Amino acid sequence: MVEQELINWFWEVLQTELFKNLVALFWLLNKRNEILLISIIGSGKVGSAIAFLCASNSLDDVLLVNRTKNKAIGEALDISNAIPATSNFSIHGTDDFSKITGSDVIVITASTGIYLKDRTELMDSQVKMIKEIATQIRKYCQHAVVLIVSNPLDVLTFIFQKESQLSRNKVIGIASSLDSSRFRYLLSEKFKVKQSQITDALVLGEHGDSMVPIFSRVKINYKNLLEIINETEKEIISIEIRDYWKSLRFFKSRSQYGIAKNTFDVIRSIIKNEDLVIPASIVLNGEYGEKDISMGIPIILNQNGVKEVIEIKLDKSESELLKISAHTIGNYINSLNKI
């Protein structure tokens, strides 16, 4: 009798909210002490810059994976000297994909070459590469959030998601946030204001020539941008955003710091499980009236990847341009099926 009463009492305790909250608290505390893993595939300028930010900010353990093993090891050896003395984390380099097992975040920055005129000019070899990487990730690490940085960004994000068979919420292309930061910078230069005085400077659609700067939502010192800018100025800024990478190439080889910082911000939000509102490329399933493509749209992401898709109001011109951008990406994807 007493034994049955103890069993009943214990069962009642298990059902209480207090007990459930204590279990949740214990899990969170235990999770905080876990050593997580950030794997970065590609140890070139961008991959190494991302690894540097992760390691120097003690975000988590970092693994650099590169087809040339010595390149990955060399970058890891260099970056390891930037890890704070108080950090519990480390960085290593390898060419062995099996080492990515257990990764929480995987970043793909690998490239088969350097494009000179257009981000799509190496599309065939890049698609072949991303399919090979997808096979390795499907084999060794099916639960990570995967961030695509390689170009052509939107095409590769779409192909990777289909090839890896990961949830579309787990595959995110990082580029629209970079284009948006360039938009914000160019506006700050034109209007002689600090970037912090500019809000809602978004670029959506393709990370390419059909990208769409969203002028209708921008505010400078809480004033609508459309009140102080004309159509000619909008067109000039749109071209400057689109060709920003070409301007960089005139002065240096390739961009690395801007995309590295934008990618680091996403990695941090995943590792820390903090909501981040950001424009990024994901595979669409009816959002903005589009399906079977990937393109840059506003999302909220956290530890689980895409938490929510944000559908914002666009003016008629922007909506039409976004349709054109989606059609452009779709044409690139469809052209691959004809090869």
Characterise the protein shown here.
With 339 residues, this protein is α/β, with parallel strands linked by helices. The protein folds into 2 domains: 37-173, Rossmann fold (3-Layer(aba) Sandwich), CATH 3.40.50.720; 176-336, Alpha-Beta Complex (L-2-Hydroxyisocaproate Dehydrogenase, Chain A, domain 2), CATH 3.90.110. The protein is built from 11 helices and 14 strands. The strands form 4 sheets. The protein has a 6-stranded parallel beta sheet. Strands 7-10-11 form a 3-stranded antiparallel beta sheet, with helices on one face. A hairpin with a 2-residue loop joins strand 10 and strand 11.
What would the keywords be for this entry?
339 residues, alpha/beta, Rossmann fold, L-2-Hydroxyisocaproate Dehydrogenase, Chain A, domain 2, 2 domains, six-stranded parallel β-sheet, three-stranded antiparallel β-sheet, 11 helices, globular
In brief:
By secondary structure, the protein is of the alpha/beta class. It has eleven helices and 14 strands. 46% of the residues lie in helices and 19% in strands.
How would you summarize the topology of this molecule?
Layout: H1 2-15, H2 17-32, E1 37-41, H3 45-56, E2 61-65, H4 69-79, E3 91-94, E4 105-108, H5 123-140, E5 145-148, H6 153-164, E6 171-173, H7 176-191, E7 198-199, E8 202-204, E9 212-214, E10 219-220, E11 223-224, H8 231-242, H9 244-251, H10 257-272, E12 276-285, E13 291-302, E14 305-309, H11 316-336
Parallel strand pairs: 1-2, 1-4, 2-3, 4-5, 5-6
Antiparallel strand pairs: 7-10, 8-9, 10-11, 12-13, 13-14
Helix pairs in contact: 3-10, 5-6, 6-11, 7-8
